């Protein structure tokens, strides 16, 4: 890991810059490296990885995670409210996972598009399972902020650790008539 505690890898696949005349929403800068999913080339974009991020599993990394989430959300076509919702959801998910992480663990985050959906997958190596939270207030808030939230927990390994993975999905804005 580099000295800033943040490692990012971006993949652009079939993404390319388009001029403003191509219908890029006003919140995306001209020359943006991503085509918004509401563009005419959506059929080409079935499942693409946008970026991956790995940070220390530490609460001090929450601002970094929120910032990267906002940037990705803006560049994939989420509106202002959707971007704010996803950043808050990322904060909640990361806080939950960091609370269970082993001290030497990294938190990994992957952003990908799937049709008109932005999927965010966040994982950490943990010392314990997360008990059923589906009726907790935090889970209720997550379900209100995103379209879908899932928790997956691996089997306990030989060292007594498990991998916790939370997946968020948020629908991208529809093309306006």
Task: Provide a short characterization of the protein structure.
It is built from 3 helices and 6 strands.
Describe this structure in words.
This protein is α+β, with helices and mostly antiparallel strands and 177 residues long. It has helices at 62-76, 80-100, 137-145; strands at 6-10, 47-56, 106-114, 117-126, 148-153, 162-171. The chain has a six-stranded antiparallel beta sheet, covered by helices on one side. A hairpin with an 8-residue loop joins strand 5 and strand 6 (162-171). Helix 2 packs antiparallel against helix 3.
Q: What attributes characterize this protein structure?
A:
177 residues, alpha+beta, 6-stranded antiparallel sheet, globular
SSE layout:
Layout: E1 6-10, E2 47-56, H1 62-76, H2 80-100, E3 106-114, E4 117-126, H3 137-145, E5 148-153, E6 162-171
Antiparallel strand pairs: 1-2, 2-3, 3-4, 4-6, 5-6
Helix pairs in contact: 1-2, 2-3
